[in-house]
């Protein structure tokens, strides 16, 4: 019986040795193969990404793209991309980015040369806002509570420039059709966004606040025209903001408005800035051309800022 056990042990030992030798041989073979591959295939080093230098003049556009640029969706957004390329904005603030998640918008933005994207998706809303940029932008806050379509608060990297994009409630009602509390809601939204940004960081002086406010400015109208749809813009201007177009072109409140551009209908889209920013603005106007006449019900707003 002892001989049998000894024989079994010897057989098991020989088998273990064979397995070990086989494993060793395979390891050596793989190492030789890898070495051979390294010797025959040169290592290709990835080029260092080109460092972006901020331009002397920053071009900013704010644009409500009408339910995710639905009028160009069947064309794979080719016309939209072509138009953005022709405008060459450094920063693009978007409203109604319907149907796009972060990844989708990143893919679209790359097509027009913007590698930096911030989205603000809300589970209870289909009309989100977004920011895309040619230059690095840092998200500081996404505002979603007590507002309809939310807001994004960001900063242009390596600068003191704060950027806020929003889209206020569009309807005449708030909670119930016929309650006529839409202006109350827009006023609430203005306060929520202001309290979360410029009023919270009072020591910071450089601010841009833009988007579709679904409100009008009393400075676009004769002083005799009264409406409570001024409430939201009055609140915004009371926080220290000035409309860029008014800053450069004057306004009807003092009879000085002389706009050398076309504007269809009443204006509810604005780019506001604080005075330290607007002192460096060289151009501010809506863009109304063959593309914008067809592809959205809002003309985009644009301005140029010296950095």
TrEMBL record:
Gene3D superfamilies: Endonuclease/exonuclease/phosphatase. One of its GO terms (molecular function) is catalytic activity. Residues 61-298 form the Endonuclease/exonuclease/phosphatase domain. The lineage of its organism: Bacteria, Pseudomonadati, Bacteroidota, Sphingobacteriia, Sphingobacteriales. GO terms for cellular component: membrane. One of its GO terms (biological process) is GPI anchor biosynthetic process. It comes from the Bacteria. InterPro entries: Endo/exonu/phosph_ase_sf (IPR036691), Endo/exonuclease/phosphatase (IPR005135), GPI-anchor_lipid_remodeler (IPR051916). This is Endonuclease/exonuclease/phosphatase domain-containing protein.
């Amino acid at each position: 019986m002892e001989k049998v056990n000894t024989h079994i042990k010897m057989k098991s030992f020989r088998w273990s040795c064979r397995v070990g030798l086989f494993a060793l041989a395979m390891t050596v073979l793989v190492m030789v193969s890898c070495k051979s591959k390294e010797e025959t295939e040169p290592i290709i080093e990835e080029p260092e990404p080109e460092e972006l230098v901020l331009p002397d003049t920053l071009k900013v556009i704010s644009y409500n793209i009408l339910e995710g640029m639905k009028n160009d969706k069947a064309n794979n957004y080719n016309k939209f991309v072509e138009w953005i390329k022709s405008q060459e904005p450094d920063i693009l603030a978007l409203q109604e980015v319907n149907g796009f998640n972060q990844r989708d918008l990143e893919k679209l933005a790359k097509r027009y040369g913007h590698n930096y994207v911030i989205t603000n998706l809300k589970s209870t809303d289909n009309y989100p806002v977004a920011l895309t940029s040619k230059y690095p932008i840092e998200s500081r806050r996404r505002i979603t509570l007590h507002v309809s379509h939310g807001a994004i608060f960001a900063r242009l990297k390596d600068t003191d420039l704060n950027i806020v994009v929003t889209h206020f409630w569009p309807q005449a009602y708030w909670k119930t059709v016929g309650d006529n509390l839409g202006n109350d809601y827009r006023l609430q939204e203005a306060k929520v966004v202001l309290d979360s940004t410029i009023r919270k960081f009072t020591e910071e002086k450089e601010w841009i606040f833009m988007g579709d406010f679904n409100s009008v400015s009393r400075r676009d109208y004769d002083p005799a025209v009264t409406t409570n749809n001024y409430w939201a813009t009055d609140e915004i201007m009371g926080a220290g903001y000035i409309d860029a177009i008014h800053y450069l072109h004057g306004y009807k409140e003092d009879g000085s408005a002389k706009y050398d551009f076309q504007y269809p209908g009443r204006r509810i889209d604005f780019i506001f800035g604080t005075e330290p920013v607007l002192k460096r603005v060289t151009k501010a106007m809506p863009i109304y051309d063959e593309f914008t006449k067809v592809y959205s019900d809002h003309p985009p707003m644009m301005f140029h800022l010296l950095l």
